[in-house]
Amino acid sequence: MFRILIIDDDPAIRLLLERTLRKRGYETLVAADGLAGFQKAQTEQPDLIICDWMMPHQDGSEVCRLVKKEPSLSSTFFILLTSLGSVDDRVKGLDAGADDFLSKPIEMTELQARVRAGLRLHQLNRDLNIQKRLLEGELAEAADYVTSLLPESLQQPVAVDSRFIPSRKLGGDCFDYFWLDSDRLVVYLVDAAGHGLKAALPSLSVLNLLRSQSIPNLDYGVPSQVLGALNQAFQMSDRNDKYFTVWYGVYHAKTRQLSYASAGHPPAILLTPAPQNTEVIPEKLRTPGLPIGMFPEANYADQTYSVT
To answer: What are the boundaries of each domain within the chain?
Structure first.
């Protein structure tokens, strides 16, 4: 049953509206002034409010403004009763957040029609909010799942640490690092175009594919070969026009050499202490290369850097 709050300082109008709406099957609440009406709205959470404009303590436009600022009441349909007919007055009411107006003297047939229309909109808005909360909950669960797949810190034989701070709850960013063998450490970053599930799914596919090393006849220690294999496996024409960028590096612990290749991704940054350890020298590690999935014939090149 819908709940309707009537706010009016005229007892005859309150009684008329209350009886009319109860006959139509609505639950009614009443208040005799604006302050009492807003307080009752906070405690009773009505679905629709019918409020007189000219009242003591707080007029209708101020009550409307307070109601619309209250998060729990912001979607409540608000009808202002008014004998004011000027455009300026109606603009003032709309600026306060009023959803509809009803002129005095009140025509009961019109009142009932406006109440029905207002409650339909309120129900629609409430349903949309429920679906929005469900969707946000599902996206949060998906984001938690993506985060759970990211690697933990490594200590031996090389210390590796990471921090993941996404700009949104769920997107196309992920990374991984793991030892191919006792000498070679793989480090890579992936950024799929877009946001939400459509971007997260390709990133997870890449992460699972590389982590399982399931591409046959591929040396995962050669970055350019890995990017070439990914480019063949993830052509955007077969993946709903989704592409992604990758930076892929392999650190050789014995020789302290870092080989790397990039597919349209921003460069990795290597920080090297200056000789006197007074400052840190940043080095951008980049190679040319198109994003994965754009062109089947794309080529990728390796570079090598000595880590001192």
So the answer is: 3-133, 152-306
